[in-house]
Amino acid sequence: MGVTGATGPVMDRDEVDRALARLGAEHEAIETSLLALQDHAGRRLLEGADLTGTTKERWTSVDASITLLWAYFDAYSDTYRSARDIRSRRRWSSREDLVELTELLRGECVTVAGSATATANAPTLHGTGKLSHQFSLAALVERMNELYATSLDMVVTSDAVWSALPARIDLLAAELQRTRQLAHSVGVRPGEHPAGDDLERITRTLTALREQVISDPLAFWLPAQGSSAPGGGRPDTTVYDREARALEDVRREIDAVLTVRQDAEARLVKLRDVLSRADRTLAEARSARGEVLAKIAASEVPAVSGPPTALQEQLAMASDYRRHAQWHRLSPLLESLEAKAEDELMRARESLTAVTQPLAVRAELRGRLDAYKAKVARHGFAEDPLLIERYDAARRMLWSAPCDLRVAEQAVLRYQQAAAEYFGGPRVPDQAGPSDRRGDH
Questions:
Q1: Which of 8, 223, 247, 285 would you label with 158, given CA atoms 20 to 30 Å apart?
Q2: Distance between CA atoms of 340 and 311, rounded to whole angstroms?
Q3: Do 64 and 229 form a contact (C-beta atoms < 8 A)?
Q4: Torsions phi, psi of 297, nearest 5?
Q5: Rounded distance between C-alpha atoms, residue 38 and residue 44, angstroms
Q6: Where are the beta strands (DSSP E) in 71-229?
Q7: Would you say residue 320 has pLDDT above 60?
Q8: pTM of the predicted model, to two decimals?
């Protein structure tokens, strides 16, 4: 068309009909979205909640934006109905109708009267100082899309946090309560056991966390990087996850205490047995030391310590804990005692080995002497005077008390060397003395 108006070329009838059809679909979509936003569970919760912090600040703005959205939509609807009424006057619109329709559909002919509250809080109108605003339908739709996106984002985000965290906190709190009851039954109480103190701290933290989540859900939201979609992101569960791990640690500690309660008597019996074996071994080592000092000359014999009284006192304390059902104290004490008792038994055995080593060296020399005597007899040299003399000399030394191991070993070596010469074999090499070979026995 060659006719133009204030908004440009005047639309023809087909253009008007297409524009009205598009506006009708657009109007229906906007109305559906606004009704969904109005009925959204998150919006209703925000409306009735006692908000704080970031959520309170944003909700003041978003609530005004939603009010403004409906005002925009009403103005949009009025303009759309006016255009439709003009088009429905006659089948073939007149030039005046088309000019008017063009102005409605393309011009800034939509007037929105902003309320004082809405214009004060809505982010798009704050600071304009105007009581009414003119928009084209396209500009109005763009403005509504902006307000809808920011409003929906907050509503969806808040609802996501409220849907996720409070329920999880409540489940964890229920588990916490069961754990507290179990802990109390085994003596794990605040001020008496670290796990009891942890339970009190977890309780306080979860109570405060739930209150904060309810009043300020946006403080617990992690936006998705690079996402502009409403509600893009996830709830921040950092504090919740930390307390859940802490509660799991406490549960493991209580399980350990329960295990102690179930097998405490068996463990105490085993502990007594281990310490008793250690005492008997030390007693044997002391007795052996006296024998060694009496039978072996020129030998350094290590001293043998007495039984550790501290372990016996701790064992008595553990038995007392069991009698008074103080399982939380018995658990760490048993673990410590079991390790110490095994160490004590090993020390006693090492002490016995060290003390009796000279006797072991003497027994080895006696065995070697007798073995060579038997070999000499098999070769027919049992009556040889030199061999008899050297055998008797070595035997007197090994069977006399106290026995000088160094001298006795040299006597055995001389007997071996003499026998080797009779056998025609290689000469028996000199060997280290007993004091040098004690590490081998």
A1: 247
A2: 8
A3: no
A4: -100, 155
A5: 8
A6: 110-113, 132-135, 221-223
A7: yes
A8: 0.56
- Residue 231's closest CA among 175, 157, 285? 157
Is the N-terminal amide bond of 9 cis, ω within 30° of 0? no
d(CA 118, CA 175): 46
- Rounded to whole angstroms, the Cα distance separating 136 from 5 reads 15
Alpha-carbon gap, residue 396 to 187, rounded angstroms: 69
From residue 59, alpha-carbon distances to 148, 157, 214, 227 in Å are 13, 12, 14, 21
CB 312 within 8 A of CB 275: yes
Range with the largest mean pLDDT of 116-120, 388-392, 432-436: 388-392
pLDDT in tens, 162-190: 999 999 999 999 999 999 998 888 777 88
**What number of CA atoms fall less than 13 Å from residue 31's CA on the CB side?**
11
Rounded Cα–Cα distance for residues 320 and 146 (Å): 73
Residue 336: partners with Cβ closer than 8 Å, 6 or more residues away: 314
431: pLDDT strictly greater than 60? no
